[in-house]
Amino acid sequence: MTNRAPKVLVVDDEPQIRKFLRIGLEAQGYRILEAVRASEGLARCADSNPDLVILDLGLPDGDGVEVIGSIRAWSRVPILVLSVRADEDEKVNALDRGASDYVTKPFGMAELLARVRGLLRDRPRAAPESAVFRVGSVTLDVARHRVTLRGEPVRLSPKEFELLRLLMAHAGRVITHKQLLREVWGPSHENDVQYLRVFVGQLREKLGDEPTRPHFIANEPGVGYRFLESAADKEQV
Amino acid sequence: MVSPFERTTDMTARWKRSLDVIGPPARGFAEAALVVAAATALAELLHPAVSPANVALLFMTGVVLEGVRGGFARAMTTSLLSIAVMSFLYWLPRFSFRVMHWEDIVTLSCFALASFLTGNLAGRFRHQLQQTRTVARRNEQLYAASRELTGLIRREDLVVVVRNAVTATLHADCVVLFAEDRGELGPAHELCCELDAQSVAAARWTFDQPDAFGQGAEPHGMGAWRFLPLGHHGTALGVLGVKSAHLDPDQKRLLWALRDLATVALDRARLADEMRQASMLADGEKLRSALLSAVSHDLRTPLAAILGAATTLGELGDAVSPRGQSELLATVISEAQRLNRFVANLLDMTRLEHGGLKPRASWCDLRDIIAEAARGLGGALGGRELVVEVAADFPLLHVDAALLERVIENLLDNAAKYSGAGDPLKVTACVHGGCCTLRVVDRGAGIAPDERERVFERFYRARDSAGHASGTGLGLTICRGLVEALDGSIAITAGADGIGTCVEIVLPLAAVGAETGGR
Question: Do A20 and B467 touch (CB under 8 A)?
Answer without folding.
Answer: no
